[in-house]
Amino acid sequence: MFGLRLDPIAFSIGSISVHWYGIILGTAALVGLLLAVREGKRFGLSPDFFMDLLLLGVPSAIVGARLYYVMFTWDEYKNSPLDVFKIWHGGIAIYGALIGAFICGIVYFRVKGYSFWRIADICAPSLIAGQMIGRWGNFVNQEAFGGPVEESFLRNTLHLPDWIVNQMLVQSDGLYHHPTFLYESLWNLVGLIILLVLRRRSFLRAGELLFSYFIWYSIGRFFIEGLRTDSLAFHGASWAASMMNGLWSPMKLFGFEAGYLDPAIGNIRISQLISVLLVIAAIILIIGRRTTGEAKVRYLDPIINFKTGLPAGTETAEKKTAASAESRTDIQNHSDDTGSDKTIKE
Questions:
Q1: Which residues form the domain of 254?
Q2: 233 and 99: one domain?
Q3: Which of 197, 226, 234, 285 is positioned for an S-S bond with 248, CB 3.0–4.6 A?
Q4: Mean pLDDT lowest for which of 70-84, 127-141, 169-183, 235-249?
């Protein structure tokens, strides 16, 4: 039956193997870029602006994802520091990727002269779309799955097609597992639709689409993380662990059981704790910024470059107009000079 497992290698060119994981992540980045470029045009932002952001943001996200993972699993690397750089062996974390990408974004937007909140809002749908697609890389690699389940649960309860059910028969233990990649991908799909609808609402203020992304993604991640068996964890206070378990307990009403968490690793899943903190922080920021009057700018308002004081795209248009006028002046001058020469010759 293991022969039914998908081959993680898409194709090979000589000794170089191209993995499905890389293709899927590349597709996720491309879709995210196209979404941002399309929305950015409405505000006068050029495609090159987002292309440069992608070229800087992807490496930053990879570095952040790796450092985040290594920081919480240092015991695995302290005796072999060079293994930290072997990212192809696995070991990245999405929250670390977000931290790396956001640090890059803060610097990049400031250099370009734009408000972080305005551009981050445009990129929010791109983030959740990228995560929605990227999770299928975990599917191909048979990783980031949940606890064991019966085959009948996958086929008869979830009504999943054979190609997904077969891939959920994990080679390492010969058991079927929760397709947590699918749960999160579908959750993110709904989230993407919500964000696309929200950004056309006149009541939305700058920064609030990004906060909505964090709220939606973190709620889903909290409950899905509880199903997984590979969570990063730490040893925390027993009351905090009980609180996390209590918040997750509604899942049991739907017949789900928490994935195994090795007590030697910890009693609190890090991603669950961060998810809770992000939801709380996002709600506080939305309420706080509106209460203090800081959230005056609406999402649909023009994006102003604080270096020039002009709306995005205006400066480029003015440069083109000036160049066109200069070109016409040069042609006129050339024509006048030619006419003078003719007069002298005559």
A1: 2-151+178-312
A2: yes
A3: 226
A4: 70-84
